[in-house]
Write a sequence for this structure.
């Protein structure tokens, strides 16, 4: 396990050296697939909770405490786009676990027309991702995880197939309520292209820290994203300042946890806010909010994310633990 730990660190550090540049495919993988992570700004890889939906963010969140847990989520996204996922986990002894998941993205019905705007009929587009998760406790405080992904896209008459992995580490100091996570996400590429050129997955390196306050049920999180690059393309053609560029790499989150059965989360995605800025104002752009409730062996959660004045996403999730039902 120690070899796994050091191999992962070296792999993430040197990933930018050999990763190929160019356009990416399967960009729907960047969208939130968990209500809790959506509420905390869209991505969070450091909060430690018995919430199986979070393993889509960091496979090291998976653990034996999620034995026989089933979870389903649905994201109502912009322009009638709908993305649903389901995941199931099973423990392996006291220090490991595995899981399987499936994700389906549907982009609604679109009209097929000629260049003269003659309607020929309807066409559809969808994506499918099948995932296998594995995790193991490397020490009492460090857990490692891996996700294997098989991806398939069908856009009218064009199809593509891809393979990818997520590699994650999670550290948790329960005595000080401090945790951090490190993830190499969406590492891989297409093995069958839509046309001719094979595209890489939207790979990224992410790092996050979470800390619960000593005398209040409040946890603060900061997540660094897009760490494989520094500058971003500016639509205005101007170069961003250092502070603005730094902000585009950060996601801020606060969750209130008055009990083990209830939580409220608020997040602010700085890049989302700046990219969606409008001249007439977009005061809530980049903000998100959500909550979750557990009753016996069932949990429900939901989150709302604001992009701009006319674009809002809604994510709903439900989980159940068959292991708790047997108690």
């Amino acid at each position: 396990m120690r070899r796994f730990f050091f191999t992962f660190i070296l792999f993430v550090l040197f990933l930018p050296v050999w990763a190929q540049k160019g356009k990416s495919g399967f960009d729907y993988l960047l969208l939130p697939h968990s209500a809790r992570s959506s509420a905390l700004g869209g991505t969070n890889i450091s909060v430690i909770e018995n919430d199986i939906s979070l393993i889509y963010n960091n496979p090291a969140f998976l653990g034996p405490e999620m034995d026989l847990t089933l979870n389903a989520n649905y994201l109502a996204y912009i322009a009638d786009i709908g993305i649903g996922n389901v995941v199931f986990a099973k423990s392996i002894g006291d220090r490991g676990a595995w899981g399987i998941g499936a994700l389906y993205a549907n982009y609604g019905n679109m009209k097929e027309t000629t260049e003269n705007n003659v309607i020929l009929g309807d066409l559809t587009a969808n994506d499918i991702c099948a995932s296998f998760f594995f995790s193991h406790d490397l020490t009492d405080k460090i857990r490692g995880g891996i996700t294997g992904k098989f991806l398939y896209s069908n856009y009218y008459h064009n199809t593509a197939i891809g393979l990818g992995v997520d590699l994650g580490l999670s550290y948790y100091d329960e005595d000080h309520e401090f945790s951090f996570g490190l993830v190499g996400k969406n590492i891989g590429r297409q093995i069958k292209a839509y046309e001719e050129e094979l595209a890489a997955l939207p790979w990224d390196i992410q790092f996050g820290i979470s800390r619960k306050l000593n005398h209040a049920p409040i946890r603060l999180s900061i997540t660094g994203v897009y760490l494989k690059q520094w500058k971003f393309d500016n639509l205005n053609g101007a170069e961003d300042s250092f502070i603005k560029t730094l902000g585009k790499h950060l996601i801020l989150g606060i969750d209130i946890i008055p009990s083990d059965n209830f939580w409220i989360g608020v997040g602010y995605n700085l890049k989302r806010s700046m990219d969606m800025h409008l001249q007439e104002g977009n005061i809530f752009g980049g903000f998100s909010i959500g909550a979750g409730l557990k009753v016996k062996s069932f949990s429900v959660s939901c989150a709302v994310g604001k992009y701009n004045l006319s674009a809002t996403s809604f994510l709903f999730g439900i989980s159940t633990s068959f292991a708790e039902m047997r108690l």
About this structure: The helical segments are 2-18, 35-39, 242-247, 270-275, 322-325. The radius of gyration is 20 Å. The first strand starts at residue 69 and ends at 76. Residues 2-18 form the longest helix (17 residues).
